[in-house]
Amino acid sequence: MFELVEPIATITFSEVVNDAFLALGMRNYWDGYFAGRAAPLGSAPAEVVHAVFYNFADGEVARHIPWVWGKVTPQEAIAVRERASADALRQQIGELAESADLVRVAELATRAALSAPTEGRALYAGLRAVDVPEEPVARLWHAATLLREFRGDGHNAALLAHGISGTEAHVLMALALGMRAEKFGRIHHLPQAQLAAVVDGLRERGLVDAAGGFTDAGREIKQQIETRTDELAAPAYDVLSADELDELIAGLEPIAAAAGEDD
After folding, report:
1. d(Cα 255, Cα 257) in Å, to the nearest integer?
2. DSSP structure string for 181-232
3. What is the pLDDT of residues 92-108, one digit of tens each?
4. Region label for 250, one of left (φ > 0), alpha (ψ between -120 and 50) or beta (otherwise)
5. What is the pTM of this model?
6. 3 state DSSP class of 116
7. How many other C-beta atoms are found inside a 10 Å radius of the C-beta of residue 113?
8. Where are the annotated coiled coils located (predicted)?
9. Is the pLDDT of residue 263 over 60?
10. In this structure, what are the phi and psi dihedrals at residue 223, rounded to the nearest 5 degrees?
């Protein structure tokens, strides 16, 4: 389900949506990112957004929030993000956007997305409070985003339970992708000494070896976190029967494939 939901939800990080936020006066991509994704939390301060998003380095959120709230309200950011994301998804999937199958897929995905428990899921709960769009493409994107944030909140809980900080999580992700930490896009910009201290901390715990790669223990804890994340994401789909879940998977496959295609 992660592989099917992710391409649909992450269309919101495309150039179409970025351009829509730039037109509102955002200075760069990250202004729009934080305005759009944090908007369901209301005009929360940087400290709260940092805590909920979990994996950004100290100070990164504060470069954008609360500045963005001087240009756009959270309600406006929600509307712009929804409209532009639906436009981007519609452009990407072409004639699938007009199919009766998409209407049914959006219905099933929305049922799942609105059924999950909110306890301990701050970002998911905030997004649950947003009105569900009526238009099918926008509705599907919204449902996929709800499911993504539900999973993401659970992932943060799994990281916390395993004692892995946000920046450490990015180091482990880089290693899982076969990449050295200092080359990974989300953390390569950090000061060398800061990133080295994070890697050293993982090395002291026996998760990273002397060469900066995974140890067996590091690889194992990464797998435990991913497995627990999947387990915590599963309750969203309990509302669907086995046949409905099969129908949802079959319906999502061509949409996700089209949404994930490079231009």
Report:
1. 5
2. GGG-TTTTTS-HHHHHHHHHHHHHTTSB-TTSSB-HHHHHHHHHHHHHHHHH
3. 999 999 999 999 999 99
4. alpha
5. 0.95
6. coil
7. 28
8. none
9. no
10. -65, -40
